[in-house]
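Box 4.2: Ligand-aware structure prediction
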Amino acid sequence: MGHLILSGVSKSFGSAEVIKPTDLEIVDGEFTVFVGPSGCGKSTMLRMIAGLEEITSGTIEIDGKVVNNLAPVKRGISMVFQSYALYPHMSVYENIAFPLRVAREKQPEVDRLVNRAAEVLKLTDRLKHRPGELSGGQRQRVAIGRAIVREPSVFLFDEPLSNLDAALRAEMRVELSRLHSKLGNTMIYVTHDQIEAMTMADKIVVLRDGRIEQVGSPLELYHKPNNRFVAGFIGNPN
Ligand code: ADP
Ligand code: MG
């Protein structure tokens, strides 16, 4: 589960077409990174996949079903944003459990899922703490825990590490890769950071001005960039 097909998907805000008609397939379990300069349309692409932004044309299919008219919560998708908000008055446990409470899961199931997420994210010994008692990296892990707790088939991450310092960012990259190999879900990760793209991705999608310039593995993009933009952006100027 977690197979995505975008066919002719575009987005306009007023007269500005910020995503040109785009085709893209993402297969189950793939760690895909959208990379490109600020303003190229990365967040808009994610928000359309999540259902937070209506598409102007085209279709989005998830696991064989067209989801164009499906509400975000019905898409089997979960999204982590750059700025995450935890509930300061709730324990880490309740922060992670929140989507399960909303979905009215029974307590034994809440326990099972929260404990599993906490274990994956190494937060087991922090479950009774409040967010204010945690480090920045731990807080970010709680936000990720909340996103993964319902075990969706697709995770979307929009620059989830950009508020962290360099050391934490490096640590979280490793954590997220570990999380991906453990859970095996489809992940789409947005960043403007080429190093993140090159080190984390199975597949990189390079965006520029609302268009896909190239799709490929990090090695393919590095050795066979389609054009100077991709070469320059990925870091191999030859
Ligand atoms: P990125 O995430 O790559 O930095 P965005 O997807 O946020 O880029 O934005 C792509 C383009 O769409 C930008 O030119 C931005 O100004 C424009 N845009 C994004 N959201 C809106 C909106 N709600 N209304 C009008 N323009 C928008
Ligand atoms: Mg963005």
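In the box above, the bound molecule is magnesium ion. The chain has a mean pLDDT of 91.
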